[in-house]
Design goal:
This protein is mainly β. Helices cover 13% and strands 45% of the residues. The N and C termini lie far apart (25 Å).
Protein backbone atom coordinates (compact mmCIF):
# COMPACT_ATOMS: atom_id res chain seq x y z
CA UNK A 1 0.00 0.00 0.00
CA UNK A 2 1.44 3.37 -1.03
CA UNK A 3 1.64 6.12 1.56
CA UNK A 4 1.74 9.54 -0.13
CA UNK A 5 3.65 10.80 -3.13
CA UNK A 6 7.47 10.40 -3.23
CA UNK A 7 9.27 13.72 -2.73
CA UNK A 8 12.25 15.25 -4.55
CA UNK A 9 15.40 13.20 -4.10
CA UNK A 10 13.66 9.96 -3.13
CA UNK A 11 15.15 6.84 -4.71
CA UNK A 12 12.66 4.49 -6.38
CA UNK A 13 12.74 1.31 -8.46
CA UNK A 14 10.85 1.18 -11.76
CA UNK A 15 8.52 -1.83 -11.62
CA UNK A 16 6.88 -1.94 -15.06
CA UNK A 17 7.89 -1.90 -18.70
CA UNK A 18 11.24 -2.35 -20.37
CA UNK A 19 12.93 -0.20 -17.71
CA UNK A 20 11.72 -2.40 -14.84
CA UNK A 21 14.37 -3.02 -12.20
CA UNK A 22 16.21 0.26 -12.83
CA UNK A 23 16.73 2.69 -9.99
CA UNK A 24 15.55 6.24 -10.42
CA UNK A 25 15.43 9.47 -8.43
CA UNK A 26 12.36 11.67 -8.19
CA UNK A 27 13.08 15.13 -9.61
CA UNK A 28 9.59 16.53 -9.14
CA UNK A 29 6.24 15.16 -8.00
CA UNK A 30 3.74 16.20 -10.69
CA UNK A 31 0.47 15.51 -8.85
CA UNK A 32 -1.06 12.63 -6.88
CA UNK A 33 -0.59 10.16 -9.78
CA UNK A 34 2.63 11.06 -11.59
CA UNK A 35 6.29 11.80 -10.79
CA UNK A 36 9.09 13.19 -12.97
CA UNK A 37 12.16 10.98 -12.50
CA UNK A 38 15.75 10.63 -13.69
CA UNK A 39 17.35 7.27 -14.46
CA UNK A 40 20.44 5.97 -16.27
CA UNK A 41 20.08 4.32 -19.67
CA UNK A 42 23.10 3.39 -21.82
CA UNK A 43 25.40 5.49 -19.63
CA UNK A 44 23.36 8.67 -20.04
CA UNK A 45 20.93 10.36 -17.71
CA UNK A 46 17.33 10.26 -18.96
CA UNK A 47 14.26 12.06 -17.59
CA UNK A 48 10.71 10.79 -17.87
CA UNK A 49 7.28 11.00 -16.26
CA UNK A 50 6.07 7.80 -14.58
CA UNK A 51 2.75 6.81 -13.07
CA UNK A 52 3.06 6.12 -9.34
CA UNK A 53 1.79 2.58 -9.90
CA UNK A 54 4.97 1.92 -11.94
CA UNK A 55 7.53 3.03 -9.33
CA UNK A 56 8.25 1.62 -5.87
CA UNK A 57 9.98 3.91 -3.30
CA UNK A 58 13.01 2.39 -1.55
CA UNK A 59 12.94 4.73 1.44
CA UNK A 60 16.34 6.27 0.62
CA UNK A 61 16.63 10.01 -0.02
CA UNK A 62 19.61 11.57 -1.82
CA UNK A 63 20.65 15.17 -2.28
CA UNK A 64 22.19 16.41 -5.52
CA UNK A 65 23.22 19.73 -7.05
CA UNK A 66 23.61 18.97 -10.75
CA UNK A 67 23.15 16.28 -13.40
CA UNK A 68 26.76 15.03 -13.17
CA UNK A 69 26.40 14.35 -9.46
CA UNK A 70 23.04 12.62 -10.02
CA UNK A 71 24.54 10.43 -12.76
CA UNK A 72 27.27 9.37 -10.33
CA UNK A 73 24.74 8.50 -7.63
CA UNK A 74 22.57 6.39 -9.94
CA UNK A 75 25.52 4.66 -11.63
CA UNK A 76 26.88 3.33 -8.34
CA UNK A 77 23.57 1.78 -7.22
Amino acid sequence: MRIGVPQKGEVCVITAGRRSGKKCVVLKPMDTRFVYVAYVEKGALKNRVFNLSHVQPTGKVVTFNDEKELLGLLSTD
